[in-house]
Amino acid sequence: MEVQIKISADAYIFDFDGTLVDSMPMWTGKMLSILEENKIKYPKDIIRTITPLGDKKTAEYFVKQLGVPLSVEEIRKQMDEYALYAYAHTIQAKETAIETIRTLRKKKYKLAILTASPHKMVDDCLKRLGLFDLFDKIWTSEDFNLTKVNPEIYRLAANEIDVPIEKCVLADDSIGALKTAKKAGMKIIGVYDKSAEEYEDEIREISDLYVTRLKDIFF
User: Fold this and answer.
1) Residue 171 to residue 96: CA distance in whole angstroms
2) DSSP codes, the chain
């Protein structure tokens, strides 16, 4: 029986951390360790704030808004030291992620990744998991010099794969990215991740589809 998809589209764009791979505990750890090592108080919703920003913008936020006594370059170096090994060697795909991407590839959909994490983390991880060559485009927010809470990044992404934005779907676990993509005109699939449990009801409410596993996009 042919696999049917619950949301009709021509292109599927996936977040990386928390959507395709189970990396959010590591990602959160690398961010909060910098604040805690420097004895910086931070708001309760800090992870919600920084998740769509990417490493560079997060480092700038730490310096300008929270007063971390380091340069942006020093902060990014610490982030890299914390994360590089994990992305290259230990982080695994989320349950059903690989089979879902392979199924979509076989069905000839355009596939892309749009993530706040840098290429030096993402690309090696995707290659190790056998996913890198399954995507038409792999973008980090730095490729556009925009964050994932700027609607323009989704318009540019749709344009680069030559698909009307209303024919694109974003699958993401971040409430900020999902809200912004919907505002830009994309359909959205909310993806469960433990790191975003406190926002689950809100994500369910705004999403065109909410899934606990990626293969749940299929009937």
Assistant:
1) 14
2) ----BSS--SEEEE-SBTTTBS-HHHHHHHHHHHHHHTT----TTHHHHHTTTHHHHHHHHHHHTT--SS-HHHHHHHHHHHHHHIIIII--BPTTHHHHHHHHHHTT-EEEEEESS-HHHHHHHHHHTT-GGG-SEEEEHHHHT--TTSTHHHHHHHHHTT--GGGEEEEES-HHHHHHHHHHT-EEEEE--GGGGGGHHHHHHH-SEEESSGGGGB-
Model pTM? 0.92
Contact assessment for residue 158 and residue 186, using Cβ atoms and an 8 Å cutoff? yes
62-73 confidence digits (pLDDT tens)? 999 999 999 999
What are the pLDDT digits (tens) for 4-50?
Answer: 999 999 999 999 999 999 999 999 999 999 999 999 999 999 999 99
The whole-angstrom separation of Cα 184 and Cα 193 is 23
Q: Answer yes or no: are the C-beta atoms of 88 and 125 closer than 8 Å.
A: yes
